[in-house]
Amino acid sequence: MTLFDALDLLGVTACAISGALSAMNRKFDLFGIFIIAFVTAIGGGTVRDVLIGQTPVSWMQSTLTIYLIGCVTTLSIIFRNKLYYLKKSLFLFDSIGLGVFTIIGVEAGIRTGLDPIFCISLGAITGCFGGVIRDILCNEIPVIFRKEIYAMVSILGGICFLVLNAFHVKANIIYIATVLLIISIRLLVVTYKVSLPLFTVKNNKES
Amino acid sequence: MTLFDALDLLGVTACAISGALSAMNRKFDLFGIFIIAFVTAIGGGTVRDVLIGQTPVSWMQSTLTIYLIGCVTTLSIIFRNKLYYLKKSLFLFDSIGLGVFTIIGVEAGIRTGLDPIFCISLGAITGCFGGVIRDILCNEIPVIFRKEIYAMVSILGGICFLVLNAFHVKANIIYIATVLLIISIRLLVVTYKVSLPLFTVKNNKES
Amino acid sequence: MTLFDALDLLGVTACAISGALSAMNRKFDLFGIFIIAFVTAIGGGTVRDVLIGQTPVSWMQSTLTIYLIGCVTTLSIIFRNKLYYLKKSLFLFDSIGLGVFTIIGVEAGIRTGLDPIFCISLGAITGCFGGVIRDILCNEIPVIFRKEIYAMVSILGGICFLVLNAFHVKANIIYIATVLLIISIRLLVVTYKVSLPLFTVKNNKES
């Protein structure tokens, strides 16, 4: 197993825990918890694969991911009242996940021969759409549209990846640099409570 | 037409009626009723086809399904105040539909050469996602995440299918056994009001 | 650039503005505004491409669309308090967009060799699903299910297209006729406040 695969599994783990917590907070039943954990972990990659036509989608290529999500979700349910103490580790895992998913998405775009702007888009889709689908299934406005600059961090990571790639930096170094950049920016954002500006319309009449 | 095709059409009919009823309960207009009926009947199969890359999706392969849904929905609108008396038949149709859709999904997975766990997943996706998309379009939390063990029944049916298939049982017998199993479990579940456990989190602070 | 491409860009422009306005009305942050504008403009085409398996989806084939949406959205944010005065132009743009998207969808169906009823469906999906996805992301019941006969107009346009096409009318004339028909019907609908009938159920007990 390469460094990259290990990071990927860490990301899947973080997303599955965050999904399971969301579902338990909304009083979903046992099956609902597993589905939301699963969708949060693989939703972004699924949307990416469907958009570029890489099917069967990637989580169907190996059983490792699905069993990992199953175990992580089971453990999350058992230790649901202790997870609060892991909050900082979870934030770290989650940032690693965002970084790794961004990289996987950008690489998929490069492999498909797409324009750089679409590679960056695919990185952000892979990184963020698991959470978007989770929020839609939970019948909420996706949180990334309202207060997180999650997606913006992923886009900056994607740009960093493409720039380093253009200079033919070695793959492993690009991976680490991108993930570190994403973790650092997220830490900065949370520490200094940075948020994107809001714009509201005065004449609030919809056409 | 084979026994299997007949069962399929019965399933589509049940889903279309259930979709039309949902839409009328939510005061959708004429077009909305048709769309929700249609999406409930073919949504699960569409998601399955898109995930495994079998496109154009299956409901575009033959016009029979779309005309059947159109007729069923028209009749549902005309007899909307009588449908209540059909409640028991509808429950039966719906269970047949769940069974048949599960079988179609599992078979699609086998044909694509996927691992058994993904075949079972595709069975459950085909059986349940029509209802999930219906609930999302109606802006509700999908009911299968909260009180129905619909999906669990579909998964048990999928396992039964794969086990019988591994013993080289004849296709028609597998179909009937799986559908009968699914109908029986659903009847048991409804009769004894079985439901999956809920797990709630004490420290209800979202990260 | 052909007349058709010019009309397409006008349609994309109208959808992006309508998406950006929706997002600003819901107090989404900067990123959310861009995403909603983008999804409204390209969502319908994306669903169509995924259903017929034409991937990578069409907005990834050329960078023109994505940059146009970026510019339009930026301008919409800057002039957000003036857009109200453009209401009539926006309605016109939006109708042109509906017409052009309908044509593109129907043509994609013909190219894929589908039955006419599916070509018409693809036209309506291309024309309407951008708005459906926008409403789902904004956590609302899609407006087309409740008070607009948007979709019905698109279906009539699709039928007009197919009839003219069957008589081997020249492509450019078909385009103009279809778009004009769609604009006229929408104007009539809005002027005379036509709406589709509602059907409600007396025994309002869900099974």
TrEMBL record, chains A, B, C:
Pfam families: Gly_transporter. The chain crosses the membrane at residues 6-23, 30-47, 59-79, 91-110, 116-137, 149-167, 173-192. It is found in: Cell membrane. Its main location: membrane. It comes from the Bacteria. It is a multi-pass membrane protein. Keywords: Cell membrane, Membrane, Transmembrane, Transmembrane helix. The keyword Transmembrane helix applies. InterPro entries: Gly_transporter. Residues 6-75, 92-164 form the Glycine transporter domain. Belongs to the UPF0126 family. This is Trimeric intracellular cation channel family protein. It comes from Aquimarina hainanensis.
